[in-house]
Amino acid sequence: MTDEIYETPSTTPNFQTELAAQLADLIPEVIADGKVDVEKLKELLDGDAADGSERFGLFWPGKKRALRAAQEPTTATLKPDFDNSKDWDTTQNVFIEGDNLEVLKILQKHYHAKIKLIYIDPPYNTGKDFVYPDNYKEGLDTYLEWTRQVNEEGKKVTTNAETEGRYHSNWLNMMYPRLKLARNLLTDDGVIFVSIDENEDANLRLLMDTVFGASNFVGEFVWQHSIQPKGYTNTVSLHHNILLCYRRSEAFELHALERTAEHNVNYRNPDNDPRGPWRAGDVRNALYRPNLRYPLETPSGKQIDPPENGWRWSKETMAAKIESGEIVFDEAETKITRKIYLDTVEGRAVESIWFGKEVGVTRDAARELKALFDGVLPFDTPKPIGLIERMMQVAGVGNGDIVLDFFSGSATTGHAVMSSNAKDGGTRRHIQVQLPEPTGENSAAYKAGFPTLADIARRRLELAGNQIKTEITAQTTDTGFRAYKLADTNFSKWRLSSDVEEDVLQQHLLSLRDSATDDATADELLTEILLKQGYSLTEAVSPAEVGGLDVRLVRDRDGDVAVLAYLNEHVKPTLEQLRALVDEEPTRIIVLEDAFQGDDELKTNLAQLAKSKGIELWTA
Question: Keywords on this record (predicted)?
Answer without folding.
Answer: Methyltransferase, S-adenosyl-L-methionine, Transferase
